[in-house]
Specification:
Layout (H helix, E strand, L loop, with lengths): L7 H9 L8 H37 L23 H19 L5 E5 L6 H16 L3 E5 H10 L4 H16 L2 E5 L9 E3 L4 E3 L5 H13 L1 E2 L4 E2 L2 E6 L3 H7 L2 H7 L7 E3 L9
Parallel strand pairs: 1-8, 1-9, 2-3, 3-8
Antiparallel strand pairs: 4-5, 6-7
Helix pairs in contact: 3-4, 6-7, 7-9
Bound molecules: adenosine-5'-triphosphate and magnesium ion (MG).
């Protein structure tokens, strides 16, 4: 037993129990194992707390449409709620695959487009939830309507101005960014008497610039590659969106890749 390098705390622990660690290798081994197991439990508890802290700080910066943060893990996606169960299953699978690509380290933009209440925000959150749980990449959620509200408020309330600055910094850096309900802030279509056509009014310039800076920071022109992944949910077609926003922003934000786009057309409105 002389050659054994005994940790002093274990030796002390055994002596307290009236055992001699130098003469009782089996008891020593057992105590050492128990101690290691306890340490392992503490480490994993600490890691879990650390992860929760990490996601909490991003959730604090997020801008939600309601008063509370939303959460929607994939387990809550129920294709059976939909008339077209098959389509709902396919849509869920597409989102699942996109999450796996992000977990594997790919960075790209995602577009989720379709009618209200069909589950776009839910599946955007499900992707973010899965990527965080499997790859520890946190996400930032921005409700475009709430963001628009902040732009309206910022001249009356300087605090909101500072918040917009901080939010923009976070949005540039977020490993996963959800821009939710993009396009709703433009309001309803306007009828033009001269042309006889309806069109969307462009979104206020300061908000366009704010978003452009974010989208530009998340795109590496030189490498032609995305920095982080951006998930956009919208009720609008790309044609609508270019009436509301500068094409340079749309080009950076809205993917044209079919495999990165999920269409929710054909699904029912699930809001009761
Ligand atoms: N397949 C589904 N399984 C379980 N819940 C669903 C499903 N589809 C939608 N929901 C629920 O229906 C509600 C509306 O969904 P969600 O907010 O994701 O729709 P949306 O497409 O983002 O709508 P909008 O365009 O109005 O923002 C939510 O409460 C969501 O949890
Ligand atoms: Mg939504």
């Amino acid at each position: 037993m002389e050659g054994l390098n005994l940790p002093p705390n274990i030796v002390a622990m055994m002596r307290e129990q009236g055992r001699d660690p130098t003469k009782d290798p089996a008891a020593f081994a057992e105590m050492k194992k128990r101690k290691e197991e306890r340490e392992q439990r503490l480490i994993s508890k600490w890691n879990q707390q650390n992860r929760q802290q990490k996601i909490k700080s991003w959730l604090q910066y997020s801008v939600w449409s309601g008063s509370r943060p939303l959460n929607f893990p994939f387990e809550r996606w129920e294709p059976n709620m939909q008339t077209n169960t098959q389509l709902a299953r396919e849509v869920g699978n597409s989102a699942w695959k996109l999450a796996n690509r992000m977990i594997a380290g790919e960075q790209f933009n995602v577009l989720m487009v379709g009618e209200p209440g069909t589950g776009k925000t839910s599946l955007a959150l499900a992707i973010a939830d899965k990527v965080f749980k499997n790859a520890e990449k946190p996400y930032l959620f921005i409700s475009t309507m709430k963001l628009f509200g902040m732009f309206n408020e910022r001249f009356d309330n300087p605090k909101v101005g500072h918040k917009l600055k901080d939010l923009q910094k976070k949005a540039k850096q977020a490993p996963i960014l959800i821009i939710d309900d993009f396009g709703t802030e433009a309001g309803m279509k306007i009828y033009n008497e001269n042309t006889g056509k309806t069109h969307f009014k462009p979104v206020r310039k300061d908000m366009q610039e704010w978003l452009y800076e974010v989208a530009d920071a998340r795109y590496d022109e030189y490498e032609n590659a995305h920095r982080g992944s951006t998930i956009v949910t919208t009720n609008n077609t790309s044609g609508d969106l270019v009436q509301m926003y500068n094409p340079k922003l749309i080009s950076r934000l809205i993917t044209k890749r079919k495999d990165n786009t999920i269409h929710f057309e054909g699904l029912d409105d699930m809001r009761g």
